[in-house]
Task: structure prediction
Amino acid sequence: MLMRTDPFRELDRLAQQLIGPGTASRPSAMAMDAYRDGDEYVVAFDLPGVTAEAIDIDVERNMLTVKAERRPVAKSEHVQMELSERPLGVFSRQIVLADTLDTERIEADYDAGVLTLRIPIAERAKPRKISIGNEASRREISG
Result:
Protein backbone atom coordinates (compact mmCIF):
# COMPACT_ATOMS: atom_id res chain seq x y z
CA MET A 1 0.00 0.00 0.00
CA LEU A 2 1.26 3.49 -0.85
CA MET A 3 0.91 6.57 1.31
CA ARG A 4 0.84 10.11 -0.03
CA THR A 5 1.75 13.26 1.84
CA ASP A 6 1.30 15.96 -0.83
CA PRO A 7 -2.31 17.29 -0.71
CA PHE A 8 -1.82 19.39 -3.88
CA ARG A 9 -0.94 16.33 -5.93
CA GLU A 10 -4.32 14.91 -4.96
CA LEU A 11 -6.02 18.09 -6.25
CA ASP A 12 -4.07 17.80 -9.52
CA ARG A 13 -5.12 14.16 -9.86
CA LEU A 14 -8.77 15.02 -9.23
CA ALA A 15 -8.67 17.85 -11.78
CA GLN A 16 -7.12 15.48 -14.34
CA GLN A 17 -9.90 12.95 -13.69
CA LEU A 18 -12.58 15.62 -14.20
CA ILE A 19 -11.02 16.97 -17.36
CA GLY A 20 -10.02 13.55 -18.63
CA PRO A 21 -6.96 12.58 -20.63
CA GLY A 22 -5.75 14.73 -23.48
CA THR A 23 -7.36 14.01 -26.83
CA ALA A 24 -6.43 14.97 -30.37
CA SER A 25 -8.93 17.85 -30.26
CA ARG A 26 -7.96 18.92 -26.72
CA PRO A 27 -4.38 17.84 -25.98
CA SER A 28 -2.72 18.35 -22.60
CA ALA A 29 0.34 20.59 -22.34
CA MET A 30 3.81 19.16 -21.80
CA ALA A 31 6.47 20.71 -19.60
CA MET A 32 9.41 22.29 -21.42
CA ASP A 33 12.59 24.33 -20.98
CA ALA A 34 14.04 26.67 -23.62
CA TYR A 35 17.45 28.33 -23.56
CA ARG A 36 20.27 29.59 -25.77
CA ASP A 37 23.50 27.60 -25.86
CA GLY A 38 26.11 29.39 -27.97
CA ASP A 39 24.93 29.54 -31.58
CA GLU A 40 21.78 27.49 -31.11
CA TYR A 41 18.53 27.46 -29.18
CA VAL A 42 17.68 24.36 -27.22
CA VAL A 43 14.14 23.30 -26.35
CA ALA A 44 13.65 20.29 -24.05
CA PHE A 45 10.26 18.61 -23.53
CA ASP A 46 9.46 16.18 -20.70
CA LEU A 47 7.78 13.09 -22.16
CA PRO A 48 8.41 10.22 -19.74
CA GLY A 49 6.87 6.92 -20.72
CA VAL A 50 6.37 7.97 -24.36
CA THR A 51 8.05 5.92 -27.08
CA ALA A 52 10.02 7.76 -29.77
CA GLU A 53 7.58 6.39 -32.37
CA ALA A 54 4.68 8.17 -30.61
CA ILE A 55 6.31 11.61 -31.01
CA ASP A 56 5.54 13.83 -34.00
CA ILE A 57 7.55 17.01 -34.72
CA ASP A 58 6.43 19.44 -37.44
CA VAL A 59 7.69 22.83 -38.59
CA GLU A 60 5.58 25.00 -40.85
CA ARG A 61 7.16 28.37 -41.59
CA ASN A 62 8.09 29.52 -38.09
CA MET A 63 5.58 27.40 -36.11
CA LEU A 64 7.06 24.37 -34.32
CA THR A 65 4.54 21.74 -33.20
CA VAL A 66 5.41 18.78 -31.00
CA LYS A 67 2.76 16.11 -30.38
CA ALA A 68 3.06 12.91 -28.38
CA GLU A 69 0.77 10.23 -27.03
CA ARG A 70 1.18 8.17 -23.88
CA ARG A 71 -0.91 5.03 -24.04
CA PRO A 72 -1.86 2.82 -21.09
CA VAL A 73 0.36 -0.16 -20.40
CA ALA A 74 -1.41 -3.45 -21.05
CA LYS A 75 -2.36 -5.10 -17.77
CA SER A 76 -3.59 -8.57 -17.03
CA GLU A 77 -7.08 -9.09 -15.69
CA HIS A 78 -5.68 -9.91 -12.23
CA VAL A 79 -4.14 -6.47 -11.72
CA GLN A 80 -5.91 -4.17 -9.29
CA MET A 81 -4.83 -0.54 -9.68
CA GLU A 82 -3.98 1.07 -6.33
CA LEU A 83 -2.78 4.44 -7.56
CA SER A 84 -2.72 6.06 -11.00
CA GLU A 85 -1.13 9.52 -11.24
CA ARG A 86 0.68 9.36 -14.56
CA PRO A 87 -1.43 11.16 -17.17
CA LEU A 88 -2.32 9.34 -20.37
CA GLY A 89 -3.52 10.64 -23.70
CA VAL A 90 -2.33 13.19 -26.22
CA PHE A 91 0.13 15.96 -25.38
CA SER A 92 0.97 18.90 -27.62
CA ARG A 93 2.95 22.13 -27.59
CA GLN A 94 3.29 24.85 -30.24
CA ILE A 95 6.08 27.40 -30.27
CA VAL A 96 6.50 30.36 -32.60
CA LEU A 97 10.15 30.43 -33.68
CA ALA A 98 11.93 33.69 -34.47
CA ASP A 99 12.95 34.39 -38.05
CA THR A 100 16.55 34.40 -36.83
CA LEU A 101 16.49 30.61 -36.35
CA ASP A 102 17.39 28.12 -39.09
CA THR A 103 14.36 25.80 -39.16
CA GLU A 104 15.92 23.76 -42.00
CA ARG A 105 18.61 22.34 -39.68
CA ILE A 106 16.70 21.39 -36.50
CA GLU A 107 18.14 18.34 -34.75
CA ALA A 108 16.04 16.14 -32.45
CA ASP A 109 17.24 13.70 -29.79
CA TYR A 110 15.15 11.61 -27.40
CA ASP A 111 16.79 10.16 -24.32
CA ALA A 112 15.50 9.15 -20.87
CA GLY A 113 12.04 10.61 -21.52
CA VAL A 114 13.33 14.01 -22.63
CA LEU A 115 12.93 15.24 -26.21
CA THR A 116 15.66 17.79 -26.99
CA LEU A 117 15.50 19.99 -30.08
CA ARG A 118 18.56 22.00 -31.14
CA ILE A 119 17.78 24.87 -33.48
CA PRO A 120 20.78 26.71 -34.98
CA ILE A 121 20.81 30.48 -35.26
CA ALA A 122 20.68 31.51 -38.93
CA GLU A 123 23.90 32.90 -40.40
CA ARG A 124 22.13 36.13 -41.36
CA ALA A 125 21.26 36.73 -37.69
CA LYS A 126 24.79 36.31 -36.33
CA PRO A 127 26.79 39.46 -35.56
CA ARG A 128 29.24 40.50 -38.26
CA LYS A 129 31.64 43.35 -38.94
CA ILE A 130 30.97 45.84 -41.70
CA SER A 131 33.96 47.59 -43.19
CA ILE A 132 33.87 51.25 -44.04
CA GLY A 133 35.21 52.37 -47.42
CA ASN A 134 37.63 55.31 -47.60
CA GLU A 135 37.47 58.47 -49.75
CA ALA A 136 39.97 57.10 -52.32
CA SER A 137 37.76 54.14 -53.15
CA ARG A 138 34.74 56.30 -53.97
CA ARG A 139 34.10 57.32 -57.53
CA GLU A 140 32.04 60.14 -58.85
CA ILE A 141 29.85 59.38 -61.80
CA SER A 142 29.63 62.21 -64.27
CA GLY A 143 27.68 62.31 -67.37
